[in-house]
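dumping this here before i forget
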Amino acid sequence: MTTTLPGPATHPAPAAPASPAAPAEDTEPVKLWFCPNDDLAPGIAATLAAHWLDEHEQEVAGRFLFERDRRQYLVAHTLVRRVLTLEAGIPEAEAVLWRSARGRPFLRKPPGGLPRGGRDLDFNLSHVHGHNLLGVVRRQRIGVDIERLDRADQGFGTIAETFAADERAWVAQAAPGRPRDRRVLRLWTLKEAYSKARGLGLGLPFDSFSFTLAEERGVTAFRPPEGDRAARWRFVELEPVPDVLAAVAVLADTAPPPVLHLHHGFPWGRAAPRHITLPPAPAHRP
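structure:
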């Protein structure tokens, strides 16, 4: 970005020069962090959690019966606080998280605004069996979801029963086994991401909206639930590692499709991310 520096004062005074500033919010990228649990050693995760997590998070972490589940929670929530520090400039232990009635967390803005860039910030977290995905946007809303194709409990047929009729028909066209399971999880992650971006979670019936998907990857059409418009949304499908499927839903109706930055690993530093251009809004499906 080119910055204009002020020159010496003259009379009459010249027009005010542009001051160094963060990029305009409309041009800010969507940021994703994909972090496997193995990127943070158990002892380090526990130490960070002891210093960073709030009382509510500490209480939740203490309820887990199995160490693997507790470890998953600690890595996911230390990831959230570390990224909020990088993006908002608020120290990890000082970030105050509010939770909606449906459990969606929000960052409470300090009285003076965010120390680092922008007026607002929205984030969303998903984790599954050893993998974590966190999305951050400077404006509007974001929802993310991540699932494993090799999920031990299976239940793909039960999941598909929650879909709209046209989606169930599309799933049934695939050969049984992994091809069909992949279609189920592609739709499921997209539906989860969209409902989380709306702040509704499972309160939004999954048969009240539907996606039309390309053969390999990508949303070609979207029939939103009543009261929403397809043109307001951008959807991205990802497979950050083999057999781990992820979806991102971004509310981006008032800005050009932004770039997505995909970071890999726990963010100790700022390693160069992978850049992905968000696709345009999908066609509206009646």
